[in-house]
UniProtKB/TrEMBL annotation:
Cross-referenced SUPFAM superfamilies: GlcG-like
Name used for this protein in its record: Uncharacterized protein, UPF0303 family
UniProt superkingdom: Bacteria
Pfam name, any one: HbpS-like
PANTHER family on file: PTHR28255, UPF0303 PROTEIN YBR137W
UniProt organism field: Chitinasiproducens palmae
Entry-linked InterPro entries: PduO/GlcC-like, PduO/GlcC-like_sf, YBR137W-like
Length: 153
């Protein structure tokens, strides 16, 4: 699959994925579903607005994974796009995050694993982020859990 094909597939996936209700129970189910689907240790974080609503670091993860989820999530919220999509766009353009957008790579990570949480008519209101696997696997895990919580398996 070419980068252009992968970017097109990600755009189509993002158009399908909407956010479940943002009440505490729904967010708990979403975060718990990521943990249940994980086949290796990951850190999972859900942020709504600027409030941390779910965080779980599976045994075998490190504090580094917590920093990665924060940086990926910040990027997904900033662009209202999956962090993998932004990273692949940069790869296709041959540019770094700071060159293309002037963003500090210490605060933003253009690697797969974070997806925006959206409300129709409002846009991005938060993010779901995963770290601990290769970037495409992190993304696939987050997207699969979100799709399952929407009943789109």
């Amino acid at each position: 699959m070419t980068l252009d094909d992968e970017l097109a597939a990600l755009a189509e996936q993002e158009a399908r994925l909407c956010t479940p209700p943002l009440d505490g129970d729904a967010l708990w189910r979403l975060g718990s579903r990521v943990v249940a689907l994980a086949t290796r240790p990951v850190t999972v974080e859900i942020v709504v607005g600027e409030q941390l609503r779910f965080h779980y670091a599976m045994p075998g993860t490190t504090s580094s994974h917590a920093l990665w989820v924060q940086r990926k999530a910040r990027l997904a919220r900033h662009f209202d796009r999956a962090s993998l999509s932004v990273g692949l766009q940069l790869q296709r353009e041959g540019k770094s995050l700071s060159e293309r957008f002037g963003l500090d790579p210490a605060a933003f990570a253009p690697y797969g694993g974070a997806v925006p949480l959206r409300i129709a008519g409002l846009g991005c209101v938060g993010s779901l982020a995963v770290s601990g696997l290769p970037q495409r696997d992190d993304h696939a895990l987050a997207a699969a859990a979100l799709a399952e919580c929407q009943g789109l398996h």
